[in-house]
């Protein structure tokens, strides 16, 4: 059986990871640069080639500094489900800082406590609580 792990190409992987760690809690698991892994001695040597963070428990997200320009917006959204509404509301509020709320977090007609936003890095998030 496989395990799905989101991999985000970022304009600034370190800043984006710090934002997610502040918003969702968690820790930096590892970070490696092009210089460390590939011996690069050019303008990419200090760029993040691979970073792993654990957020909101044991949910692993990978990030890397993009070598080419990154366009914002996509058809993909990251979703985190919480056991309690107050946890979901807190994470939603922190992720929304500097971003855009698409759907406020509240109980939906279909019964789920749900909110959707695009964070300040252009990543879509869906936050739910049971």
UniProtKB/TrEMBL annotation:
It comes from the Bacteria. It holds the Pfam family 3-dmu-9_3-mt. Residues 11-128 form the PhnB-like domain. Gene3D superfamilies: 2,3-Dihydroxybiphenyl 1,2-Dioxygenase, domain 1. PANTHER family: PROTEIN YJDN, PROTEIN YJDN-RELATED. This is VOC family protein. It comes from Cohnella hashimotonis.
């Amino acid at each position: 059986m496989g395990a799905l792990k989101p991999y985000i190409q970022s304009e600034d992987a370190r800043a984006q990871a710090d934002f997610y760690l502040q918003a969702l809690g968690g820790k930096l698991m590892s970070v490696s640069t092009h210089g460390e892994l590939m011996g690069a001695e050019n303008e990419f040597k200090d760029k993040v080639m691979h970073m792993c963070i654990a957020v909101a428990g044991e949910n692993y997200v990978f990030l890397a500094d993009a070598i080419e320009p990154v366009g914002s917006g996509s058809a993909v959204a990251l979703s985190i489900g919480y056991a309690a509404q107050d946890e979901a509301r807190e994470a939603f509020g922190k992720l929304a800082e500097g971003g855009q709320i698409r759907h406020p977090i509240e109980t939906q007609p279909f019964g789920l406590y749900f909110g959707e936003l695009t964070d300040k890095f252009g990543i879509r998030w869906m936050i739910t609580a049971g």
